[in-house]
Design goal:
This protein is of the alpha/beta class. It has 14 helices and 17 strands. It folds into 2 domains: 228 residues, TIM Barrel; 164 residues, no CATH class. α2 runs parallel beside α8, α7 packs across α8 and α11 packs across α14.
Length: 418
Amino acid sequence: MKRRTWVALGLLAYIGLPYLLVQRLGLGLIREGRQGERVVALTFDDGPDPRTTPGVLDALREAGARATFFVMAGRAEAYPELVARILAEGHEVGAHGARHRHAWGRSPWGGWRDPGEAARRVAGVVGRPVRLHRPPHGGYTLATVLGQRAAGLTGAHWSVEGQDWHPDSTPEGLRSRLGARVRPGAVVVLHDAGPGARVTGLGLPGLLADLRARGYRMVPVGELEGASPLTPADLPRRVMGGLDALLDRLGGVRYAGGRADGLFRVGRVRFPLAGVRLADGTPVPRGTPAAEFHVNNPLMVDLGLRRSVRLAREDFRDVARDLVTRPELRDAEVVFCLSALSPLLATLGFETHDLPATTARRLHLWANLLRRAYGSPPDAPEPKLSVMGRAAFLERYGTAASGEWAVGSGKEAPSTHH
């Protein structure tokens, strides 16, 4: 075998597979918790720094929030009083690194040694063993993985990235970005030192206020329900979530209301079926402009059906808002879903229609695949069409309970989220 082939295989084993399986898919790492409750874990990297960490701690204390700080060993040793304050105020401390260098730029020996060295030095400041480790930049090689294992550490990644370090990032931009992306069970990465701290320090109070207003509690990673290292049995759910995200991007499907913690995703399509007529006699020809909604499957699985139905009544208001505020949805004449959830959707006002046999078989196979991926028995009911006319949908869901907006006429009205 040629030398270049051996080199390629070596790089695949040392960098390629750890990047795909660990860094991207999260195998063996903590990266999120269950979505059944509105709880989120905020994490802060690169500190402590006496110029910026106190402001982060002040904001957390004012909001009654607790977090996890992944500290650099040298900084922890230099500022033990800040580490003491972090612990005294109920936060969690993990190890970030002995040297802040991406794993891909380190020697195998250095990559293997760094997790254990960082954990030992941080533990010396904390006064007890450190359990969690997040390598600088969240970067992994085979040496990093083996180094964590040898030191008895659990890797902690993230599911939502604040990108406060980006040169174009601003406090308001950070607040808006995370407001759209945070969801129950998320692990959010921010910075209390370094370039990201200039943005996070200013944006954090507003972000915390927003999260509290939406019913979130902020806890350390170690207290996040269901936050355990991802196992091979968890990979189907992770892969399916990634596939959903890819299909959404390709199809122009977006979370209703622009929030990842909502129950629905919505996109504009041409109605795919022929011969459908609504109960009031209105025909819906194939090709009619329509809004198709999809269920946020991980959220629904973790909530359970009963709580999902309650949330659906609220989150359909976001779908109604999208109908009048998203330009591509303004001509949608019907709102529909092709799924095995028709009995539940019928309780929410949707008509139920049978599907053509070939379409039903295809969707039934897909529904059972989803159920397997999310750990449910593969016995999905027969998929059907659930559909409602635009006017009926807006009449039913187009007025927020607070009275902030009304779209019964189908005309756009300014609003804020309920």
